[in-house]
């Protein structure tokens, strides 16, 4: 969208401008924004946007970015103990990809006028959330497979529609993220398949991991629609394209045949095909557990946040060195420009 840019400060709130004129101007901007959303155009950083739209995007993108970097921890836990060099190289690449996703997403959030420092500060002080899923432990090597298959699988199901999000920088970031998530999902599936077809003990390990990760993966999609505070507005703004329950159902429908192909069972006795609905029915999710994890009482909340805070403190010297280097570069450039300027001036006089 290019028709209206955010440079409204000259008129809005300026002395001598009547309230009615400000309101009319605001309504005009709002109408252009609504029309752009209705026409499926992208809203770009310099476009005018309602403050609530901006705030909701910052909230969602920040939570998404935090999830990517906190999400590195459970799998990184297995890098040193990967069963082969090949598995280790794949896992390292995957965990690095998650760091990259965090960086694109923090950059996307920054285009909305917030800073990465501010967002990290909110994460570290518990004022912004990250996904519930990363508060569960990775107890065996099979958990790496289960995370790739189920957690990355759920993430793709949720994020493919976000490639059509109305906010341009977020939508574009999602395109690359989804491509990488596809690789992550396949590597998890393949690792689980190897275990499932392995020895009896390996098969049991794969089954145990799936038993533990299935229900938390369904919770990743967020609360049921009737308890979701943001869905209705986010869908009206075309930030979200589907509700939490719709995406959860889509994920279940994809996962059931995959579990069969893996030779593993999903831990839900109520799971069965419903011919009439054309979908799988599934059992009740323990929403009390979900809300409890969000409150900070999951098995690993404490550990994840304290490790994140520690990593941030340990990285302070890198940020200081980078800032000092940038400052030195700025001063050097300034001197070089001054020198050039004086030199040219001298030539002109001569
Ligand atoms: N965990 O009104 P709604 C990944 C909160 S994928 C924690 O329905 P909304 C890849 C929600 O914020 C994981 N909190 O909210 C990877 C709100 O609280 P607030 C990240 C949750 O935004 C794989 C309240 O509950 N993916 O990282 C959760 O419309 C492997 C009410 O909920 C994304 O973030 C939850 N599961 O819908 C990385 C995707 N669910 O903010 C490493 C983008 C809800 O009012 C390794 N985000 N809440 O305090 C979204 O699509 C949406 O934000 C939803 C939630 C669908 C997550």
TrEMBL record:
It comes from Streptomyces flavochromogenes. This is 1,2-phenylacetyl-CoA epoxidase subunit PaaA. It comes from the Bacteria. Residues 322-350 are annotated as: Disordered. NCBIfam families: PA_CoA_Oxy1. The gene is paaA. Residues 325-350 have a biased composition (Basic and acidic residues).
